[in-house]
Amino acid sequence: MNIGIITKDNGLFHRLYQAAEQACTVKGQRFAEHYSFHPLSPGQVLKAAKNPKEWWLIFLDGDTCENWLLDVKYMTEANSHIMVCLVSRDYRRAGELLQQRILRGIAGYIHPEEDDLDRQCKNLISFLTRRISSLEQTLMIRSCGQELRIPYKDICMIETEKGSHFSKIWCTFGEYSVRASIQELLRELNQDFCQVRASAIVNLTLIQTAEPGSGILNLPRGLSCCCSRRMKGEVFHKLNHGG
After folding, report:
1. What is the pTM of this model?
2. Which of 19, 81, 165, 184 could join 121 in a cystine, given CB atoms 3.0 to 4.6 angstroms apart?
């Protein structure tokens, strides 16, 4: 997890820096990046966080950064892997924003004078570490204009939709259509998934029965998929030897 600090207050920057560094040291986290206290634009943060698989925690000082509300909205809407901790002396304003749920990606709130920064940073980073660990076991997709996270354990198989640039994700509870290729999706999945033919991926842990002769794999919900002749040997080797 990368950590950035956006503030014009030199003293606050160093206090947050030290508190966050101590929290990461205690939790054994890789403290990858600190930014100086010079003003940063959302574009600069997004450029640094361009990899959608990299998680970011941004401490944003609402008392010294102009247009900070717009900055937070811009950052969290553009990248769901960016989370923001508001730092402000204005309890009322921060409370209104959190209560109204105007913003996405809010990870917490810190009062720079009243709160114990060491304890708050330790609790925050502990919480985010657990949350990230949970979210990393999901596939993030955009379907019908919505961002969704599907747990790996619920994905049965994925197939190319013929004559289109879309793939269909078959889950234990339903299905989704997403604009992505099989290869793109395979790169996002873990070792439980295997490509069984050019147009299909299967979750090996959800295979109920497998027919070596025909290469047919049977899955929950009455779903089935046939391995290609070229890939059948590798697929059944993984099934028989646990991947």
Report:
1. 0.61
2. 19
